[in-house]
Design a protein that fits this description.
With 321 residues, the protein is an all-alpha fold. The protein contains 12 helices and 2 strands; from the N terminus they run ββαααααααααααα. It has helices at residues 13-29, 33-43, 48-72, 78-105, 108-132, 146-167, 172-183, 187-212, 218-239, 244-267, 282-293, 295-320; strands spanning 2-3, 8-9. A hairpin with a 4-residue loop joins strand 1 and strand 2. The longest helix has 28 residues, at 78-105.
């Protein structure tokens, strides 16, 4: 199957399986799918710009499900999430512009791959540390005043938004520890609030990327959603049955190995891109034409599509519980 905006031809089963793996791992280990989606797409041969934009698009659906579940459980502080989004959205716009400049200079692939090596190493070591310190207490920080807490979250949301626009990550790995250890919010509420912020920034960053870079492939994102939505349900169910504390250590090692492989590939010779067939199919050609002629409207449509898909899935989950 040809994905003309991403510029690749893939077996349609591959992105579905990648989405299933991403959703399941995110559900089991409680990590953001954005940290996994972009490296996985790059591993599949998707160019970095399309991997970032498409990963942002599928992240809307995943974060919409998580936000709905946490809102229903009362584990979200909406006002704090909105303050965070107000800071991260303009920063995400700047991150997108920076990504465009790096693409023009030919450095974007190296920057994205290098940044994900560092992110995977950081997350991997954090998981190993949690395994090593299992059983010890990790108290939250002293609660700040409302104004102080908002100011701290807004400050770090600027960094999270910049990362979203540049790298396609939601920033939960930044904001959740900040909310827990610096602001004094409980872990579950911090995760739920961060998910709402991720939902908002991923919507904005999807539109930014579609408008200014053109790397959002809604067909590829839809294939990822087909796998990631049921994968997230499966991951949550498995987390209740598996020895997750021990598995987190193993998964941390796998992330370190993945980081090592990405680091090796940065300095290795990249395989030559294979030219696409002349015909991309009627649907693919129509989407490519729409994205090229009306990029802003296409970006809004892609974000709305993912939001509706995630919202419907979240509605089904909340009613089935």
């Amino acid at each position: 199957m040809i994905f003309p905006i991403a510029g690749v031809e893939l077996c349609p089963l591959l992105p579905v399986l990648l989405g299933l793996a991403i959703g399941t791992l995110a559900g089991v280990f409680g990590i953001g799918g954005g940290v996994l989606a972009t490296p996985a797409l790059m591993w599949a041969g998707v160019p970095p710009a399309a991997a970032v934009g498409t990963g942002l698009n599928q992240m809307i659906a995943a974060s919409a499900i998580g936000t709905m579940l946490n809102v229903e459980a009362g584990r979200v502080r909406p006002s704090l999430a909105l303050f965070a989004a107000c800071a991260s959205l303009p920063a995400g716009f700047l991150g997108t512009l920076a990504a465009g400049l790096l693409i023009e200079g030919g450095y974007f692939g190296v920057v994205v791959a290098s940044a994900y090596v560092l992110i995977l190493v950081a997350v991997g070591f954090r998981m190993l540390r949690e395994l090593w310190t299992a059983g010890s207490s990790h108290p939250a920080g002293d609660a700040l005043s409302d104004a102080g807490g908002v100011a701290v979250v807004v400050l770090f949301s600027l960094l999270a938004g910049l990362f979203a626009g540049l790298l396609g990550v939601g920033g939960g790995f930044i904001l959740v520890p900040v909310m827990i250890y610096l602001v004094g919010i409980g872990t579950r509420v911090a995760i739920g609030t961060s998910l709402m912020q991720i939902l908002l920034i991923s919507c904005g960053a999807t539109v930014f990327h579609a408008t200014f870079i053109g790397g959002v492939d809604v067909m590829l994102a839809a294939m990822l959603m087909v796998g990631s939505i049921p994968g997230s349900w499966l991951g949550v169910a498995l987390a209740r049955r598996l020895p997750v504390a021990r598995l987190r250590g193993l998964f941390g090692l796998l992330l370190l190995l993945a980081a090592a492989r990405m680091g090796w590939e940065i300095f290795g010779a990249a395989p030559a891109a294979q030219p696409l067939p002349a015909q991309a199919g009627a649907i693919g050609s129509a989407i490519e034409l729409f994205a090229g002629e009306k990029p802003l409207l296409y970006g809004l449509s892609a974000a709305a599509f993912a939001l509706v898909a995630g919202g419907l899935a979240g509605f089904v989950v909340t009613r089935a519980r």
